[in-house]
Specification:
mainly beta; Immunoglobulin-like; eight-stranded antiparallel β-barrel; 1 helix; 9 strands; elongated
Length: 180
């Protein structure tokens, strides 16, 4: 019985090996993501909305955001580790996306969380725009931000307090998904 089971396993392994050798994955079969989008929704008790896009360009990932409904001033703006916004205060999104276990920092720092995007600044009408190119985030591979969450905080990121910049409660967020 054991010899028969061993023979079956060997036959299965040979078949899979032949399939793998004879049918390699082509470039067309491995999709690379060039653009991602986030539709911003408010946490309970807030009225924030907007859109964030991530576009793969030669220099890195271009981040563009257009947000409405914020209080005037600076607000922490981060990528969090989970795309789970099921908690009313969005704490289910976890902490900042930090796969390399680096300290919290400014977006231009080389030694920072992948998710540290700094602050987004709202004008007197509560509207905020954000645009920059980031060389650390990715739309593909092991450090991909797809399926994670963008979170906008109530307060300014101070860039010093560990591990999150003391940016306060989460006022808005959205899940990062593949765009056309």
């Amino acid at each position: 019985m054991l010899k028969k089971a061993s023979a079956i396993i060997v036959v299965i392994l040979v078949i899979f090996t032949l399939i793998w050798i004879c049918c390699p994955i082509t470039e067309r079969q491995v999709a690379t993501v060039e653009k991602a989008i986030v539709v911003i929704q408010p946490a309970q008790g807030y009225n924030v909305s907007g859109k964030v896009t991530f576009t793969n360009i030669e220099e890195g990932i271009k981040i563009s955001a257009d947000i409405q409904g914020l209080t005037p001033g600076k607000h922490g703006f981060h990528i969090h580790e989970f795309g789970d916004l099921s908690a009313k205060d969005f704490t289910s999104a976890g902490g900042h996306f930090n796969p390399m276990e680096k300290p919290h920092g400014r977006p231009q720092d080389k030694n920072r969380h992948v998710g540290d995007l700094g602050n987004i600044v709202a004008d007197s009408t509560g509207t905020a725009q954000y645009e920059r190119v980031d060389k650390m985030i990715s739309l593909n591979g092991i450090y991909s931000i797809l399926g994670r969450a963008i979170i906008i905080h109530k307060n300014e990121d101070d860039f010093v307090s560990q591990p999150t910049g003391n940016a306060g409660p989460r006022v808005a967020g959205g899940v990062i998904g593949i765009a056309q």
